[in-house]
Amino acid sequence: MDILYFPKEEEEEKEFQGITKNCKELILSLPKVKGWRTPNLYLFQRFWCQPKEIQAIISAQTHFEAHDSDVIIATIPKSGTTWLKALVFAIVNRRRFDVNSIDHPLLRSNPHDLVPFLEYKVYADNQVPNLSNLDSPRLFASHVPYTSNCKVVCICRNPFDTFVSIWHFMTNIRPNNLGPFSLEEAFDMYCMGQVGYGPYWDHMLGYWKESLNSPQKVMFLKYEDLKEDVNLQVTRLAEFLGCLFSAQEKRDHVVEDITKLCSFQNMKNLEVNKDGKSILNFDNKGLFRKGEVGDWVNLLSEEMVERLSQIMDEKLAGTGLEFPNILKS
Ligand code: PAP
To answer: What is the CATH number of the domain that holds 286?
Structure first.
């Protein structure tokens, strides 16, 4: 039988491209595990990250100065980032950009271009841009738990669907050079917290606790709640962001127009989301898969569900954070 040759070295070289000598030294001193789409993940400031992310995170932590009026959308990957970015952009800019305009930026640009990630766009590739001339409120996003003076909107999603979403996304983009990565192996790593920006529960609970301590500063949303009643959540978001809908706007159905503009079907079918690339080399179309609650039933075995349920029960016990009815989907 032929042995498949996987030139992993090429990927290892790529993962450190553009990383400064000092940063590389730091990264190589960190604990590491196998990566999902790069050779390794490194444990940096208690979270598992890729080298390029680590360099950009350090840069953001050094250079980013939050304004009180800024808004940061903070998420763990695959929990509804794209959707939340679209909603927040449409809400805070609705006086600048009429939601029903055929020229609305969300019809031409992917939400990741309108609300850039600090670690993938703003401070990626060693750049330190001047952000002082940007219109207020400035909108940014991050997968990292930043402590910041500005408002933060966080979204999380039940871990079953989040895992399934990451799994599909990663299997599409994982380079062949890295060799096979089975569902079982990925799930095992997920359960040990070894996934980008994981452990999942620490990320989620960090923002959850912040939202309880400082509800004026941190708003915590669940993907499932958005799916259940997105108009209600858009109204709550506007209140949190200090731009309430007026009685006239309510009569004019502005809330419903925003949710329609940002709906899965609408966004998925836009040209920019069918053909564009907004984050590194990912195709935007990979950001719009099914957009459902409960898709995990199609992938996870009974044992997997039991294992992850136990982990979540243990991690979330006494925190007040729960995902009711997820297992009955
Ligand atoms: P990211 O971390 O790469 O930015 P993120 O947007 O957080 O990804 O999550 C992608 C998930 O949100 C996908 O879920 P799925 O794999 O279970 O289908 C994607 O389909 C879903 N999604 C994207 N846009 C929307 C939307 N407008 N409404 C509902 N779900 C959406």
So the answer is: 3.40.50.300
Q: What is the pTM of this model?
A: 0.95
C-alpha count within 13 angstroms, C-beta hemisphere, residue 129:
13
Three-state secondary structure call for residue 101: coil
Please indicate, yes or no, if residue 48 is contained in any of the structural domains.
no
The count of domains in the chain is: 1
Model confidence over 48-69: pLDDT tens digits? 999 999 999 999 999 999 999 9
| φ/ψ of residue 281, rounded to 5 | -105, 15
Residue 1 — pLDDT band, cuts 50, 70, 90? very low
Active site residue 143: yes
CB atoms within 10 A of CB 46: 12
Report residues whose beta carbon is within 6 angstroms of any ligand 1 atom: 75, 77-83, 161, 165, 168, 262-264, 267, 287-291, 295
Please indicate, yes or no, if residue 44 is contained in any of the structural domains.
no
For the stretch 154-191, pLDDT in tens is 999 999 999 999 999 998 889 888 888 999 999 999 99
